[in-house]
Amino acid sequence: MKQRAITALNALVVFAALVLLWQLVVWIFRVPPFMLPAPWAVVRAFGGRLPSLLNSLAITAEESAGGLAASVVVGVLVALVFAQSRWVRKMLYPYTLLLQTVPIIAIAPLIIMWMGAGIPAVTLIAFIISLAPIIANTTQGLISVDENLVHLFLMHNASSRQVLFKLRLPHAVPDLFVGIRIASGIAVIGAITGELFAGSGRVGEGGLGYSILYASSQLQTDYLFALVLAATVLGFGFLFLVMFLEWYFLHRWHESARAPEAE
Amino acid sequence: MSAAADLPEIEIAGLRKQYGDAAVVLESIDLSIAKREFISLIGPSGCGKSTILKLIAGLASPTSGTIRVDGMTPLGARETISFVFQDATLLPWRTVQQNIGLGLELEGAAKARREEETARLLELVGLKHVAASYPRELSGGMKMRVSIARALATNPKLMLLDEPFAALDEMTRDRLNEEILRLRTEQNWTAVFVTHSVPEAVFLSDRIVVLAPNPGRIHAEFRVDLPEPRTSALRSRPEFDAVASRVAHSLRETLRP
Known about the structure:
The structure holds 2 protein chains of 2 kinds. In chain A, 80% of the residues lie in helices and 0% in strands. By secondary structure, chain A is mainly α.
């Protein structure tokens, strides 16, 4: 516990030092506010436009969460298909690689053209970008079961359903969480990227991406900073939520989810 | 019924096993194992002793030759067979009690019977105090006990044990050897036990089969006529050493070119 407090304190000291450095740079070099606003100006922008900022944050959170949830459901289903045979994997795996390598910035305008600007299109973009890590990690977990465990199940005349639900799926849960952890960060990036292209036509109804675009076009640099801050907080929030769920489901039996104090 | 009682538990005839075009793993194995016999297979690495177990279990099929378990094919007899692997092979997401109940659960036993049976086995192997623990909290010896209890839960007639104590320290191994004999007096199963250890084989077995490698074949057989019940004191008796040195000598012969 004490170790943790010290770690947290260290992080805080580093944060304070960075803010101080930032303030000093603004003072010493007399940087104009539209280039680099002072920390206090960012805080003021954050507080002063809180309602519209929170609104943007809520929209982006909804899109990222929707996209992530969909990619978990679809990703696990695809992984279950992949786990059936090596042949299926060889045939379909290249397409998941495609999913991972396609530049989202290039296909975002296409999706918006097809679906129209708005929350559904951005959710779809968040879904596409976060799907690959879920598929890859869950498949790995499903197929990397110890051969002797499969033999054990066979010795008790287990059906293939039982092997799947009582052996392969539970075994894949830690890997699934690794996938979700990676996907949670990029789902937020995907949503914001999508919004940069789509968002919404009206101020206050778009997500963070749209607001970022708007603030930068108006040279409201202090608000832009506040938005970047909000986007970072959102990403962190997602990550912490996933890590909490991971701990909650795995801490009793899995090594990776052990609390640091126990070591 | 009387005919079935006269049948050997395992009858292996002219068994040959080869994986694809690779070297022959087992060649002309003939082996008859009586009901309630405890037999050990011992031999250097590559002599195919684990493969024999897999073939008896029906987890692999012979290239030629036949295997009968209680007059049936290995697959047909599967319900009466339990397998204990070298690693404890426990499911880490299940508690000790849930692990012991796995076989019964897969075979569709009712919950009430499962609970009754697992409680009895927890008592029998002395693990009642860790019934709700997860495998990672247990020592290697305790994990192996859980694995054996899980195998016994389905009330097998034949136990196949593939070097179950190889990874344990000698003291734990000796204790578990005594325990396995005690457990056998309760349920009276036939056992085929694969091991690297001569003292272990002598202590446990009614009969020891020494296998030679390249290709795997039967080199010699020894009947072990030591007094029952066997206790730890037996290990320091001269008769014990006499059998052990004969087996060890035979084992050395298998390595001569």
